[in-house]
## 1
Amino acid sequence: MAKYQAIKGTYDVMPAEAAAWQHVESVVRRQARAFGFREVRTPVFEDTALFVKGTGEATDIVQKEMYTFTDKGGRSLTLRPEGTPPVIRALVEHSALKESPCVKVFYLAPMFRYERPQAGRLRQHTQFGAEIVGTDSPLADAEVIALLFTTLARLGLSGLTLRLNSVGCPACRPAYRDTLVAHFRPRLDTLCGDCRERIERNPLRILDCKADRDRVQDAPAMTDCLCPACAAHFDRVKALLKGLGVPFAIDKTLVRGLDYYTRTAFEVASQHLGAQDALGGGGRYDGLVEQLGGDPAPGVGFGAGLERFLLAMRNQGVAVPDGPRPDIYVAALGTAASDKAAELCGMLRGKGYACEQDLQGRSLKAQLREANRINARYVLVIGDDELAKGAASLKDMDTHGQREVPFAELADNIEAYCECSCQG
């Protein structure tokens, strides 16, 4: 018989691992709320043209990594490879910027990219992203950077590095583009095949190439070519980050892998991830809303992979809280007792308790082992004697205290019985 396995580059989160995921997701949600971001959810697939136009036709994502298919209606659709274009599409479609001139949203969503799987970088990954749309203020840049940086710190991660750069704007970038071309053209023979093509289509992508990483260190810096407005914006961002206590280092080769970025570009890295050390990053995209059919509106945001968070936490040895323990396990002996246990479980769940019972007709010893395995706080034991007396035996699994609890009183007094069970 055929045995099926998860597709290469995908993964299963089993119950034993789910607690770590839930912890990270809860910290992310708390931090997003603390910064005033509200959650947005977009479809898993979109019109392919959204990413070709929004992400950039010359990017590696569009050229090499998208999962694209034709549906039964003949439409070209693509599984979401990144979060920003779908969010902007949703804000434009639902006129969100007409309701509020400045929108702050975040998302936790699966992304899909066909790339070589490696530790923390898979073909399906879960991304935490945040966007501020409607303002070009450097305050917004500093706020999204601070959200990502402080979220990582709240997860217990240390050894973080914020890499910062400015990629200018349409006014100053053409001159920088010419400077880059003049620098790299005499060096074409030393560049990889992709970069030899990029010099014609988008020379800034050369700076983002991992294969030619060592060869771009002597390239001209964009920060030396910024127009006065971009230079002033970048200076304000740096001053705000210093005021927020967020340390950073200027990285002149940081351009990120997307065509829509303007001005601020940033990336947060961890010393616990090896050579592929990025946890997440983003930047400003002042022309994207208009490019995707909306009225002109500036924006800034980031995307970060939760798999990378968890890998860095594991490598650093960050302790993750255990998942919530069941409140009560009802152990029953015999058919009549099992029926009563089902009734009591229903009542206890109605009171808000996490309650489990044996479903296999196992021995009392086996049921108590199961209660220990799932770390239940209390055990209610019901057998023929308990049915005859109309009372169950309530055991505190932490203190091993035990007392008898009448069925008739259990529904209304379970809290009091649990509180004093160790003294019974």
Note: The chain has a mean pLDDT of 89.
## 2
Amino acid sequence: MTTLPWLWIPLTIFAALAQTVRNTAQRRLTDDLGALGATLVRFFYGMPILALWLGLVIGVGGQALPPLTTGFAIWVLVAALSQMAGTALLLRAMAARSFAIGLVYSKSEVIQVALFSVVFLGERLSLVTAFAIVLATLGVVLLSPRPKSAVPIRGWADPAALFGLASGSAFAISVVGYRGATLALDAGSPFLGAAGTLFWSQLAQTVLLGAWLLVRTPAVVLGVLREWRISLFAGIAGAAASIANVTALALEPASHVRTLILIEVLFTYFVSLRIFRETISRREIAGIVLVIAGVALVLSSAN
């Protein structure tokens, strides 16, 4: 892994771009399929891509997937369940307010990722990285909307804020779970470790969420199959984002990866302006500048 010290940077940037494409497609599906239906799209249509990627990695690398352990299974379930919850909550946040604002609230995950990584994975957090995280998070706060009422807390207590913040917590847990799973698998290669982790986690997500919807609301599953064109697009983009993101997590501490991936905010605001015709204020521009500064600090401090 040490022979590829900078590979996590382009992988994370690509993951951010692919996530923006996936979120855009899922956001368009939410009105017809609901938050859970649009969430299933990501897993169901991405599963064949991840299976193909695992086969390719094994074939090219010439290494078999290591035996699965109890520790790996626990980390995978933690990652899978929390990612499902985070995706559904994020889509609810976007539907409640706007595409960009929903995602901005969810990016509160970066501080939680840093804390969870220290507590559960034993990773070290340098002062420069901690300052970068605070700076980028302050940018995220500026990107959140000003409260319209005289009571400031109401701005953070509306449905978009609550769903977004909850999605950030769920995504933070999933990030730590994915890194924990790749380390527990001990595949000897970040590519094989990430591919194996993704295959098993997304298989669990597809089966669990698909079975739940089949029992509770089978019409949603039929809708997922009916909207196969845009769903396939979302699934491919989601699989590409997951491959890049989890491989980056296998190479670099989670706090670095999740701070850099905040550049997704820039891509999201571009989509918000160009596709959804939403507006951007000077305050939001200042927030974007702080996010960029935080990302730059993380890049400068990374080994």
Note: Residues 33 and 87 are 14 Å apart (CA to CA).
